[in-house]
Design a protein that fits this description.
Strand content: 5-15%
Helix content: 40-55%
CATH topology of the largest domain: Aspartate Aminotransferase, domain 2
Number of helices: 16
Number of strands: 15
Shape: globular
Bound molecules: D-serine
Number of domains: 2
Strand order of the largest sheet: 4-10-9-8-7-5-6
Length: 414
């Protein structure tokens, strides 16, 4: 006689069904609670977002757009996706069209390229080694394999984007699309100037605000809307939603962007992630979230100032946003610093600094971000302690790094 397994919601308890995975999740939960999560692209979602992401929407196929699906039974999927779209537009105070289906920021960017340029066409974007992103034309990414990228960087003098140089390059390269946005750039990006540069050479402008979306939503960073043809973002960094991406575009690009995302780039949307995005967008529209973003920036400024006082060089001399880039030249490699800090339960990532003599596997710097620990309630005073423990660990001036981290975590929210 054959036996069949009946799946009922009532019996699906992870600890009983799969103790191995349950235990790994418990370990990760402990690692997060008892360490300083300072990876600039990470954050901690609310229980409400997690509940939505763990909901029955994970079971639903909904290929297509709301109201035009290739599957039946999508009425609630349609509503939740439209709700996410409306909330996203309200959050960024824009009437740009939005598609919330991209599974990630990279998918959102690739969707834009697929929608508006052809293989071999020219892209002008920020060099990955200067703070850009893989999906902005890196030879290791489809964007660099399919298209023809040229790069701008930061100036040697002040390590900020040199807009005159971008303008000169744009006139020389004549790209089809200019990409403005970064994953390791601590300064304000002048989207208005980028818009003018793009217009001047007849290029489209894609602004990738993945890192700073929460800051843009709350007015802590100038908005690209009104200057860009496309705005892409992830939803899980400063925006503090579930992992994923989304793409905004002006009305003329709506049809092409939608069909580039599906079926061009992806199959079925992850409806549980979209439900989580809807929850996060509502959270991000609250006054509490505005205060949170201010604190994120204040904490990064305090961290930066203290590390400078402790003798470290910070890229561009400080920060305007949620991250700092620590220059470790003459002290150790970024890889060594990442490992030394990890041993003390402090989590950062090794990162190239501008004009880095070392490869990406080693690097001369580390990137440190404040969004996750600010979500746990740490303020400027605690970030002074965070800066000091980082400095002491890296300078070899403490043997009690873990205890000091534990003490900081003990004062943080769960
Ligand atoms: N991996 C992200 C970051 O850390 O910035 C970008 O995709």
């Amino acid at each position: 006689m054959t036996t069949t397994t009946t799946q009922t919601r009532a019996t699906l308890r992870l600890a009983d069904a799969d103790s191995e995975v349950a235990q790994l999740i418990a370990h990760e939960d402990q690692r997060q609670r008892h360490g300083l999560q300072l990876i600039a692209s990470e954050n901690l979602v609310s229980a409400a977002v997690r509940e939505a992401v763990g909901s029955v929407f994970t079971d639903k196929y909904a290929e297509g757009r709301p109201g035009k699906r290739y599957y039946s039974g999508c009425q609630w999927a349609d509503e939740v996706e439209q709700l996410a779209e409306r909330r996203a537009q309200a959050l960024f105070d824009t009437d740009y069209h939005v598609n919330v289906q991209p599974h990630s920021g990279t998918q959102a960017n690739l969707g834009v390229y697929l929608a508006c340029i052809k293989p071999g066409d020219k892209i002008l974007s920020m060099d990955l080694a200067m703070g850009g992103h893989l999906s902005h034309g890196s030879p290791y990414n489809a964007s660099g394999k399919l298209y023809s990228p040229s790069f701008y960087g930061v100036s040697r003098d002040d390590e900020r984007i040199d807009y005159d140089e971008v303008e000169r390059l744009a006139a020389e390269v004549r790209p089809k699309i200019i990409v403005a946005g970064a994953s390791a750039y601590p300064r304000v990006i002048d989207f208005e100037r980028f818009g003018a540069i793009a217009k001047g050479v007849g290029a489209l402008l894609l602004t990738d605000i993945a890192h700073i979306a929460g800051l843009v939503a709350t007015g802590e960073h100038p908005s690209p809307f009104g200057h860009a043809d496309f705005v892409t973002t992830t939803t899980h960094k400063t925006l503090r939603g579930p992992r994923g991406g989304m793409v905004f575009c002006t009305e003329e690009h709506r049809r092409k962007v939608n069909s580039a995302v599906f079926p061009g780039m992806q199959g079925g949307p992850l409806m549980h992630q979209i439900a989580g995005k809807a929850v996060a967008f509502a959270e991000a529209a609250t006054p509490e979230f505005r205060t949170y973003q201010k604190t994120v920036c204040k904490n990064a400024a305090v961290l930066s100032e203290r590390l400078i006082e402790r003798g470290f060089r910070i890229m561009s001399g400080g920060t305007d946003n949620h991250l700092v880039l620590l220059d470790l030249v003459g002290k150790m490699t970024g890889a060594e610093a990442e490992e030394t800090l990890r041993e003390n339960h402090i989590y950062v990532n090794k990162n190239l600094i501008p004009f880095d003599p070392l490869p990406a596997s080693k690097t001369s710097g580390v990137r440190i971000g404040t969004p996750a620990m600010t979500s746990r309630g740490l303020g400027p005073e605690q970030f002074l302690a965070v800066a000091d423990v980082i400095a002491d660990v890296l300078l070899g001036e403490t043997t009690t790094g873990r205890e000091r981290v534990e003490a900081i975590c003990a004062h943080a929210a769960d």
